[in-house]
Write a structure and sequence with these properties.
transmembrane; membrane
C-alpha cells in the first residue's frame, strides 16, 4: 500500500471525527446520552462500510462497494491496523507524568474502592466463564474463550478489544475481536443510559449525598462544549518550542515507553521459547500494550528521580492519549464485522445481558455495603467504568457530584493505579486468553472466584463497617 493511501486513510478519520462532533452538537439524543464523538464517528464509519452501505448498494444492483463500502478496501486495511498500534500508546501513558504512590498510601485512601473494583472485574470473569462452560459451549459450540469477552469488552473497552485482535487470531478465534468490540459498544451505551437512570433514581430516593433533584447539566455540557468563561489550558508548555516542540518531546517519551515494552515482550518470548515453550506457551499470545504500560511505569520511576525541572506535563500526555484513543475507536468500529455479530447473535445477547445485570447488581446491592461513605457517588464511577471505560465512570461521577465535594474522584484515581495494571486491559486481561488456551477455563474460573470472594469479604466485613457521614453510606436497597 502506497504512503499516499495510508495518509488518505488517516485524513478520513479526521473528517469522520469532525462530522461526528457536529452530530453530537445537533443530535439531542446523543447529548442526553453523553455519547463520545469517537463512538458516533465509529458508527458513521460502520454504516458507510461494506456491511451496511456495501450491502445496500449491492441490493440496488452495483457491487462496486461490496469490498470496502464507501471507503474502499485499502482504507479499511489501514484502519484495521491502527487499533493494535495506538492502544500501546494509550497504555504507555497511563502513569506517565503521575507520581507513583506507595501501596500503603493508595490502600489507605482507596482500599474500599479497590475491593469494589476487583469485585466488578473478577466477577465479570466468573459469570462469563460460567456462562461459557454451561451454555455457550454445550449449546452453541463456542470455545471457552468467550467467557473472557465480558471483561475484555466491558471493563477493557474498545481499545482493549481491538488491541487483542492479534491474540484472538493466534488463538484460532478471530471473530472474538468483533464480538468483544460489540460488547464494548453495548457496555458503553448501557453504562451511560443505566448510569443516568440510576442517578435519577438515587436523587429521587435520597441516596445521593450532593446532587439535588434540580441539578441538571448545562446545554453546552450536553453538547460537549466548554463554556468560554470556564475554559482552561489543555496542556502546559514545559520546554521552549524553539528547542523542541513540547508535543514532540512527550511523544518521544511515550515512544521510549512503548519500546521498553516491546523489548520486555521480546525478552519474555525468547525466555519462554528457550525454557518451557514445548509444554506451556503464554507470551506468544500476549499483546504489546500491557508491557507498554510497564514501560511507562519504568519511565515514570526514572523521571521521579531525575526530572528536577518537571518537564513532563501530565495534561500533554493525556492529549496524546485522547487523540490516540479517538482514532483507535473510529478505526476499530469502522472495521467491525456485523456478519460475525449476526452469526453469533444469541450468544452475544446472552453475554451482554449477563454482564449488564451483574454490574448493576453489584452497584445496587454491594456498593452500599462495601463503601464506608458517599457510596453512591463513589460506586457510580466504578459502575460506569465496569460497563464502559474510565471516561464513562468520570462522566457519571461528574453528574452525581458536579461540585467535586465528595472523595469519589481521588478514591477513583488511586484505585486506577492498583486496578489498571491487572484488569481493564492490564496483565490479567491480556493473559486471560493465553491462560484459557493453555490450562482451560476452569483454573481461571477458580482463581477469579477466589479473588471475588476475597474482595467481597474484605469489602463487606472490613471496609463496609467503617461508616462515614450519616446517611451517605446507609445501605438502602
Amino acid at each position: 500500500m502506497s504512503p499516499e493511501a495510508i495518509g488518505f486513510a488517516l485524513l478520513l478519520i479526521g473528517v469522520v471525527l469532525l462530522a461526528a462532533k457536529l452530530v453530537r452538537v445537533r443530535w439531542k439524543l446523543a447529548q442526553r446520552l453523553f455519547l463520545p464523538s469517537s463512538i458516533i464517528g465509529g458508527g458513521i464509519a460502520l454504516l458507510l462500510g461494506p456491511d451496511v452501505f456495501g450491502r445496500v448498494a449491492s441490493a440496488l444492483g452495483t457491487d462496486r462497494f461490496a469490498e470496502g463500502g464507501l471507503w474502499g478496501g485499502g482504507v479499511l486495511e489501514v484502519w484495521s491496523a491502527l487499533p493494535g498500534l495506538l492502544i500501546s500508546v494509550v497504555f504507555a501513558g497511563l502513569f506517565l507524568g503521575r507520581r507513583i504512590p506507595n501501596v500503603r498510601e493508595a490502600g489507605r485512601l482507596a482500599g474500599p474502592q479497590i475491593t469494589l473494583g476487583f469485585a466488578f472485574s473478577s466477577g465479570q470473569y466468573v459469570v462469563g466463564l460460567l456462562l461459557a462452560l454451561l451454555v455457550l459451549g454445550p449449546v452453541f459450540g463456542l470455545p471457552p474463550l468467550t467467557g473472557a469477552l465480558i471483561e475484555i469488552g466491558f471493563e477493557g473497552g474498545h481499545g482493549t478489544a481491538a488491541g487483542l485482535s492479534g491474540t484472538f487470531a493466534q488463538a484460532g478465534f478471530p471473530e472474538g475481536e468483533d464480538l468483544a468490540l460489540g460488547m464494548a459498544t453495548i457496555g458503553l451505551l448501557t453504562g451511560i443510559v443505566a448510569g443516568v437512570i440510576l442517578i435519577n433514581w438515587g436523587v429521587r430516593t435520597g441516596r445521593t449525598a450532593e446532587l439535588s433533584a434540580s441539578a441538571e447539566p448545562s446545554v453546552t455540557e450536553r453538547m460537549g462544549v466548554v463554556e468560554r468563561e470556564n475554559r482552561t489550558a489543555a496542556a502546559t508548555l514545559t520546554v521552549h518550542p524553539s528547542s523542541v516542540e513540547p508535543l514532540a518531546l512527550h511523544f518521544g517519551l511515550l515512544a521510549i515507553a512503548v519500546l521498553i515494552g516491546q523489548l520486555l515482550l521480546w525478552g519474555l518470548q525468547a525466555l519462554e521459547a528457550a525454557l518451557w515453550a514445548d509444554t506451556v506457551e503464554l507470551f506468544a499470545y500476549v499483546p504489546l500494550f500491557p508491557l507498554a504500560m510497564i514501560g511507562g511505569i519504568a519511565m515514570q520511576v526514572v523521571l521521579d528521580r531525575t526530572d528536577r525541572l518537571q518537564v513532563v506535563d501530565r495534561q500533554m500526555v493525556e492529549r496524546i492519549q485522547g487523540f490516540s484513543l479517538d482514532v483507535l475507536v473510529v478505526s476499530a468500529l469502522g472495521t467491525l464485522s456485523l456478519q460475525v455479530l449476526a452469526a453469533n447473535f444469541v450468544p452475544f445477547v446472552l453475554l451482554a445481558l449477563v454482564g449488564v445485570v451483574y454490574c448493576i447488581a453489584v452497584f445496587v446491592f454491594l456498593a452500599p455495603r462495601m463503601l464506608p461513605d458517599y457510596w453512591f457517588e463513589r460506586g457510580i464511577g466504578d459502575l460506569g467504568q465496569s460497563l464502559g471505560v474510565t471516561a464513562t465512570g468520570l462522566i457519571l461521577m461528574r453528574v452525581a457530584d458536579p461540585e467535586l465535594r465528595t472523595p469519589a474522584y481521588p478514591a477513583f484515581g488511586y484505585k486506577q493505579l492498583i486496578l489498571e495494571p491487572f484488569f481493564g486491559g492490564g496483565l490479567v486481561t491480556a493473559a486471560a486468553i493465553p491462560l484459557i488456551l493453555q490450562f482451560g477455563a476452569v483454573p481461571l474460573l477458580v482463581v477469579m472466584a477466589v479473588l471475588l470472594a476475597a474482595s467481597l469479604l474484605l469489602g463487606l466485613l472490613y471496609f463496609g463497617r467503617r461508616r462515614g457521614p450519616a446517611g451517605a453510606a446507609a445501605p438502602r436497597t
